[in-house]
Amino acid sequence: MPLPDHPLVLHGGCNCRAIRYRITVPAQPARPLNPFSDGELTFPMIMTDHCNDCRRATGAILPVWICVPSDMMTCQLEPVSASNSEAAGAASQTESWIPATELFRPGPQSDKYWLKFYKSSSCATRSFCGRCGTNLTYAIWPSMGEGEGWPDIFDVVLGTLEREDLEKEYMAPDRHCWVECEIGWVRELTSGGRELPRHPTYKVNEMAD
After folding, report:
1. Given this model, what pLDDT does residue 43 score?
2. Which label site among 7, 29, 48, 157 has the fewest CB atoms less than 10 Å from its CB?
3. Segment 58-68, tens digit of pLDDT
């Protein structure tokens, strides 16, 4: 289902917490339209991605993204020079929330923080944590330019959001994209065509209810 119409704030970051981000979503009337949706779909939107490049880059057989206008996203970063101890991590981050566009692009500050970048094509840049390796975002700079009014977008790996946000029913993807690249058995799994055994933990001799 789509995100609710009311304002909401989502939080996430990398596994070691050196990189934290916040997505501040305004009320529905203030959200930009997706120019390819015939005026029906606004950003942010949540989608599964069957693209070959994103599958390899994330290491996930079916990546899921929340596509966020860049001006909705801010972040706090831990400097590389800070202590690596878990206790010092949060205290050593930038105190204020900084616009993501100032930090989530390669530039002079790229060596200062654990936020690192990989340029996966002539215009696309992916970001990840240089300490724990978590994949975080995909972005095209400048903006795609394929549709009038297309805003600068960060595609944020949905699994990097905090669990308390992910558990909301409205965080489920509401569309599949790049299905021209999809793998047959992945489609079968996602469409309910094959049911797998379910286990509470790694112990495959114990079955979930």
Report:
1. 94
2. 29
3. 999 999 999 99
Using alpha carbons, select from 34, 13, 59, 29 the residue that is nearest to residue 144: 34
Q: Are 154 and 147 in contact (CB under 8 A)?
A: no
Going 84 to 86 to 88 to 94, the CA torsion angle's sign is positive
3 state DSSP class of 60: coil
Q: Are 79 and 92 in contact (CB under 8 A)?
A: yes
- pLDDT-derived band at 165, boundaries 50, 70, 90: very high
Distance CA 183, CA 171 (A): 24
Residue appearing with tokens 């509401």: 174
pLDDT of residue 15: 96
Token pair belonging to 10: 């989502």
Chain centroid to CA 134 = 11
Cα–Cα separations (whole angstroms), residue 189 to 46, 109, 131, 192, 196: 19, 42, 33, 5, 9
Q: Do residues 47 and 67 touch, judged by C-beta distance below 8 A?
A: yes
